[in-house]
Amino acid sequence: MENHPLVKEILFSKEEIEVRTKQLAREIESYYKSRDVKENTVILIGLLKGCIPFMADFIKNFDHECQTEYMVVSSYLGGTKTTGEPKINLDLNISIKDKHILIIEDVIDSGITLEYIKNYLSLKGAKEVKVVTLLDKREGRKVNIEADWSGFVIKNEFVIGYGLDYDERLRNLPYVAVCDVDKLKDWKW
Fold first, then answer.
1. Which of 3.40.50.2020, 3.20.20.370, 3.20.20.70, 3.10.450.350 would CATH assign to domain 14-76+84-154?
2. Which residue, of 19, 33, 45, 84, is most buried by count of CB atoms within 10 Å of its CB?
3. Which residues does the UniProt record annotate as the domain Phosphoribosyltransferase (predicted)?
């Protein structure tokens, strides 16, 4: 696939992401195998829509009993900055009381949405809530929250591809790239 014209720089290739995802799956497997996990099953909760490519690759490599669930939580309303007010648009359809939860996230930026969801899941009775993220944008933090596992630490730049979008587009790029935001001003789709 040719680089999209809105790509300023490719940060991580498909191959680099695949290698790191396999490493994360092994690390997290080891963690859960050393725990007393109810029914030996971890509930993997993907935060849609950006988590899809990462979660798909992760679960193919995660050798531990799991269930997959999804939530839609929005704090972006089509631009490049968060509104700072998370809203649950799609909630879980199962009870998570006394369950081990692993949130699968594409990127942690401000941390506001993740903090909100972790607290929400704890209030619903989860025994433990852990987080794995593909990308960790620590410079963008507005709250004190960290991932338990992260694939790559990145600078505070707007990134696209591999599930990450601009206005619901560009999620299908097979790599993670810095978006050339200057071009967005007059971009014609």
1. 3.40.50.2020
2. 45
3. 30-166
